[in-house]
Design goal:
It is a single chain. The protein is built from 14 helices and eleven strands. It has 474 residues and is an alpha/beta fold. It has a domain of 265 residues: Type I PLP-dependent aspartate aminotransferase-like (Major domain) (Aspartate Aminotransferase, domain 2, 3-Layer(aba) Sandwich). It has a seven-stranded mixed β-sheet with strand order 1-7-6-5-4-2-3, with helices on both faces. It has a four-stranded antiparallel β-sheet with strand order 8-9-11-10. Helix 9 packs parallel to helix 10 and helix 12 packs across helix 14. 45% of the residues are buried. The mean pLDDT is 97. The structure holds pyridoxal-5'-phosphate.
């Protein structure tokens, strides 16, 4: 063995303690750490792109990394990171994630280790948490983008089957164009259309209900009725990013009865609202969708990267048709919900279920519902306070956990855009709260998405103070 490897093997407990100390010191600074490190701290330091001929050992390497780059890490895991939809990691899920790397299981098949059984059990518990029926199967993937991709791959296979074509064998050309209908498809779904060979141009944007991002079922029916035989998938939203709009799923299911399309529900963060009895009705009908996406690294607060793709059990054979993998050294695919190798894009798979399993064990439904309810309450508080603060205005009523706001008087002019950008720059430089810029109804806006388990009322006050101070300076 190389002497440095031998040395590190001999001192492994010390190395892990050092990593643990580093992690603890990072977490302790989280409340004060900048939510957007200065640009200078985001650069690579000299020499760090050069391959060393000889190493320095794990402890010195850890120290090297931390000394040089600690200041370039944002507080994205902390209580005032409202940008994108970025969750943190609860203590249980963080500890579990460390163990995932330590035990290093390859969660492919149902007989290799207990990890597949735990993934299956995690899916079973998530169905209970979300009010999804037994006849739904699920697998862990790396994010909602991949969950949308997998869902649409199964949809594609199903659309082929309706026309006697096996797309997995024959290719998409054997079927011809697929029509994709959505009012507010997430950009990741559009990306998935490209990856699937369906093409971004296949997306037809359906009109929304007045003043809403939710699909207008009448407009959808008009499109369906005009060309009822076209192979079609409908991408529904359960929580759009700007205004957290939920499509009327029961209405879409009635249309599915009539026109026979594949109904996919992108519930990347909105789906987690179903953990709370108070907000579960927003998801009414999703249990009958053909496929569903839910992110775990957003509102379930597990570390990156983790999401769940749900499929109705009746479609599982189609999922196997798409993702089965034949090789002399692999078992033949069978249609069962825990042969993950034959159900997901990956061959080798991280034991991604463990952080979710651990969080459910540690905090239960109560604990996770409390995070959802507190985030929603605080989003409303932030919205009320912003609406009452001179200089700010809401772009949309606060819905669930997202506040979409603007600077007063913001319109579609380049000046308004420049002012918003200046404000955003100041807010980032201050580093107290991170928001994302957006645009709604052609107005430049700012979005605060609350999904972190640590956020409290004091964070809303700190965020508001910073926003007011930055506004005064522009
Ligand atoms: C975040 C998000 C996605 C993409 O999720 P990733 O986890 O970043 O891949 C897709 N759809 C919606 C509605 C989202 O909010």
């Amino acid at each position: 063995m190389h002497p440095l490897l031998q040395h590190d093997l001999d001192t492994l407990p010390e190395i892990l303690r050092q990593a643990c100390d580093t992690a603890v010191s990072f977490l302790e600074t989280l409340p004060e750490r900048s939510t957007c490190p200065p640009a200078s701290a985001q650069n690579l330091q000299a020499g760090d792109d050069r391959l060393p001929e000889s190493g320095i050992g794990a402890q010195a390497a850890l120290e090297h990394f931390w000394n040089r780059y600690a200041s370039g890490m944002s507080a994205s895991a902390g209580p005032r990171y409202f940008g994108f939809v970025t969750g943190g990691g609860t203590p249980a899920s963080l500890a579990a994630d460390w163990l995932v790397s330590t035990v290093d299981q390859n969660t492919q098949l149902n007989f290799d280790s207990v990890s597949a059984a735990i993934e299956l059990a995690t899916i079973t518990q998530l169905k209970q948490l979300f009010g999804l029926p037994d006849a739904v199967c699920g697998t862990f993937v790396s994010g909602a983008t991949m969950a949308n991709f997998v869902s649409m791959a199964i949809a594609r296979q199903w659309l082929g089957q309706q026309c006697g074509v096996d797309i997995a064998q024959q290719g998409l050309a054997a079927l011809g164009p697929i029509r994709v209908l959505s009012a507010a498809a997430h950009s990741s779904s559009v990306k998935a259309l490209s990856m699937l060979g369906i093409g971004r141009d296949a997306l037809v944007t359906v009109a929304t209900l007045p003043g809403s991002e939710a699909i207008d079922p009448a407009a959808l029916e008009e499109i369906l009725a005009a060309d009822p035989d076209r192979p079609t998938m409908v991408l529904a939203s359960a929580g759009t990013v700007n205004t957290v709009a939920f499509d009327d799923l029961p209405a879409l299911l009635r249309l599915r009865e009539k026109y026979g399309f594949w109904l996919h529900v992108d519930a990347a963060f909105g789906g987690v609202a179903a953990s709370s009895k108070r907000y579960a009705p927003l998801l009414a009908g999703w249990e009958d969708a053909d496929s569903i996406t839910v992110d775990a690294h957003k509102w379930l607060n597990v570390p990156y990267d983790s999401a769940i793709q749900f499929t109705q059990e009746r479609h599982l054979a189609l999922q196997v048709q798409v993702f089965q993998n034949h090789s002399a050294y692999l078992v033949l695919p069978s249609v069962r919900p825990d042969n993950y190798l034959h159900l997901t894009p990956e061959n080798s798979r991280r034991f991604r279920a463990l952080p979710v399993w651990m969080a459910l064990k540690a905090y239960g439904r109560d604990g996770l519902a409390e995070v959802v309810e507190r985030n929603v309450e605080l989003a409303h508080l932030l919205g009320e306070k912003l609406a009452a603060t001179p200089g700010f205005t809401l772009l949309a009523p606060v819905s669930l956990n997202v506040v979409c706001f603007a600077l007063e008087g913001a319109d579609g002019t380049p000046e308004a855009l420049a002012t918003r950008n200046r404000f955003q720059q100041r807010l980032d430089n201050a580093g107290v709260v991170r928001c994302t810029s957006t645009s709604l109804n052609c107005k430049p806006g700012i979005r605060a998405a609350l999904v972190n388990w640590m956020t409290e009322e004091a964070d809303i006050e700190l965020a508001l103070d910073s926003m007011k101070a930055c506004y005064a300076e522009i």
